[in-house]
Amino acid sequence: MAVTLARNWWLLALRGVIAIIFGLLTFVYPASSMAVLILFFGAYALVDGIFAIIAGATAPTGSKRWGWLIAGGILGVIIGICTFILPQMTAFVLTIWIAVWAIVVGITQIISAVRLRKEIEGEFWLILGGALAVLFGIFAVLSPLGGAFAITFAIGIFALAYGIMMLTVAFRLRGWHQRRTE
Fold first, then answer.
1. For residue range 126-179, what is the model confidence (pLDDT) as tens digits?
2. pTM of the predicted structure, to 2 decimals
3. Closest by Cα among 154, 48, 53 to 99
């Protein structure tokens, strides 16, 4: 496996460069990046819904789950179509869902840290992470557009970090492969 990866180090480097370009474009064109992400979500929901309907319609006659599969597929198709017709509404709804999730996760982290404080050290970091999640969730609920941009920037930061990591691994593999073949 390592030899194959090392021999094809340039593919990892290419993935890293693409991730870095994507991350930089997210910062340079945040509104366009958000729009593209929303459209990708819509395309995914639509295609996934169609495949779920097909899977449900072609399920064996005695299968009890086909109705739910078709219902989920129809919902996916509707959400996909709505995403293309009302992309701003999709951005708003997704931001609110992520905000609620962040608040719930943050609260549970804080509760867990308080309960674990006698058993572990450094629970402060768990509390801090939970508080940060709650604050982000509140910010996103109060300012959905700002929350959507924050999510877009977070994706950009991830893409940059991932791209740098991929380049680092690629060049280390390249060096390892060169030393091995000398």
1. 899 899 999 999 999 999 888 888 888 988 999 999 999 999 998 988 888 888
2. 0.67
3. 154
Tokens of 176: 């390892």
Give the amino acid at 26.
T
Residues whose CB is less than 8 angstroms from the CB of residue 42 and which lie 6 or more positions away in sequence, other chains included: 79, 80, 81, 82, 83, 84, 87, 90
Residue partners of 5: CB distance under 8 A and separation at least 6: 12, 173
For residues 40 and 44, what is the distance between their CA atoms, to the nearest angstrom? 6
Q: How far apart are CA 140 and CA 135, in angstroms?
A: 9
CB 102 within 8 A of CB 134: yes
The residue with tokens 């939970």 is 130
Q: How far is CA 165 from CA 1, 63, 160, 172, in A?
A: 19, 46, 9, 11
Asked if 137 and 99 touch (Cβ cutoff 8 Å), the reply is yes
